[in-house]
Amino acid sequence: MPAPSLTTDTPAIAAMPAPSGDETAPRSTAAPAEPQQPGDRDTALLAVAPDVAPAPAQPDQTQAAADPSPAPMTTPRDDAVLDISPRAEAGSPPTRTAVLAPQDSTRRQPLPVIEPAPPAVQPDQTAPAAPVAVPDINPVLRPRIGTPATSLVDRPAPGEAGAGSDIAQLAPADGSASPLRGNALPFDDSDTRPRLSIVLIDRGDSGLGPDALAGFPYPLTIAIDATRPDAPEASERYRRAGFEVLALVDLMPGSTAQDAEIAMEVSLAAVPEAVGVLEGDATGLQSSRELSDQVAAILGQRGYGLVMLPNGLNTAQKMAAKSGVPSATVFRDFDAAGQDAAAIRRFLDQGAFKAGQQAEGLPAAGEGAGVIMIGRLRPETISALLLWGLQDRAQRVALAPVSAVLQAAE
C-alpha cells in the first residue's frame, strides 16, 4: 500500500507569496513542527507579519485564457496576519486574519450638556417692600463711596460738616465748670513766653511727699498713681500744698471698652481733684485703637484733659485732639533710666528749646501750644529741677502747670 504523500497529508505551515509576479513560491514539504504553547503561537503570529504588503498571486494561464475578464484582485491589508494554524489544507491559499487597530486612548470625551437654568421667581410687585435696617456708620471711621479717603488725622472733627456725633463734651451736663478748669491753678495768660510744664510721678514708694516740694520756685504738677490705697488722701495733700494733680492710669492689654469705662471710673474717683489723666509708663492706654478711642471719649464727656506718652506717630493723641479732647503728648521723660542731675538739666534745656520753636510758629502736626516733660519724685530729680530753674535757659520759657498747656490745646 503506497505511503501517503507529504504534500497532501501534511498541513501547510505558511504560504508566502513569491517576490516576483512570474513564479510561484514552492510549497514547503517539511515535516510538521512540534505543537507550540499558546505564548509561542502568539509570537509566531507576530513574527511572520509582513512589514510590506506582499504582491498578489498570479492567476493560472489557462484560466486567464478561458476568461478574458480578469477577476478583481484584492489587495491584502498591511495589518493582516497569515493564518498558519494546522486547519489550513494543502493547496488552499493562505487566509489572513484581520487585526483590529487599537483604540485611541486620547479620544475626546463628549462635552457636558448644560441645561438651562430654571426661570427666576419674580417678586410680587403689589406686595409692600419690607423695610431694610441700615446701620448708622460713623463717617469719621469710614469714608463713603465716591469720596476719596483721607488721613486719620485730617478727617472732620465732631461739630464740623460731615462729622458724626460729638465725642467730647468739655463741660459736665449739670453746667458746672469742667475739672480741667475747675481744678486748675491760676496762671497768667498775658505771659507771651512759650509754655513748659513739668510733671512728677508719685507712686508712693519714694518716701517723699508734699513736704519735699515746699517753697518750690515754680509750679509743678503731680501725677498720683490711681491704684495707691491712699490716692485720695495724697491728692488732697498736694492740693493743699498748691500743686495740680493728675491721675496716673494704666490699662491691661486686651481690655475691652467696658473694661476701660470701669477702670476710668475708679481712677477718677481715686483722684477726685485731678485736672486730667496721665498715661502710665507700664502698660499705658494705647494697646489698641478701640481702647484709646474709648478713653478719649470718656475723658472728653467728663471734661478732663489727657496727657499721653509718645508712641510712633502719636495717632491716638492726634485723634483725641481732633475729636475735641484737650490733649498733648509728652516731649521727654528725663529720668526714666535713673539719669543724674547733669543729664536731667540737659533734657530740660532741650524742652525749653522745643517750646521756643513752637512759639516761633514751627510746631509739628498734633502738637499744642507748649511742651510737657515728665520725671519722678526722687531726691536727684528735685535737686536738678531747683538748679535748672536758676539758669538762663529757664528764664526764656513760662513754667506753667499742665492745665495751662492743655487749655491752650483746646
Features:
410 residues, alpha/beta, TIM Barrel, 11 strands, elongated
Tell me what you see in this structure:
This protein is an alpha/beta fold and 410 residues long. It has a domain at 179-408: Glycoside hydrolase/deacetylase (TIM Barrel). It contains eleven helices and eleven strands. It has helices at 6-9, 38-47, 61-66, 179-182, 231-240, 257-270, 289-302, 315-322, 341-359, 379-389, 402-408; strands at residues 81-82, 96-97, 195-202, 221-225, 244-249, 276-279, 305-308, 327-329, 332-333, 371-376, 398-399. Strands 3, 4, 5, 6, 7, 8, 9, 10 and 11 form a nine-stranded parallel β-sheet that branches. A two-stranded antiparallel ribbon has the order 1-2. α6 (257-270) crosses α7 (289-302). The protein is elongated, with a radius of gyration of 53 Å.
Specify the number of helices. 11
Q: Which architecture of the domain at 179-408 does the CATH hierarchy give at level 2?
A: Alpha-Beta Barrel
**Regions with pLDDT < 50 over 5+ consecutive residues?**
3-55, 61-72, 78-90, 97-101, 134-171
Distance between the termini: 144 Å
CATH class of the domain at 179-408: Alpha Beta
Order of helices and strands: HHHEEHEEHEHEHEHEEHEHEH
Strand content: 5-15%
What is the helix content? 25-40%
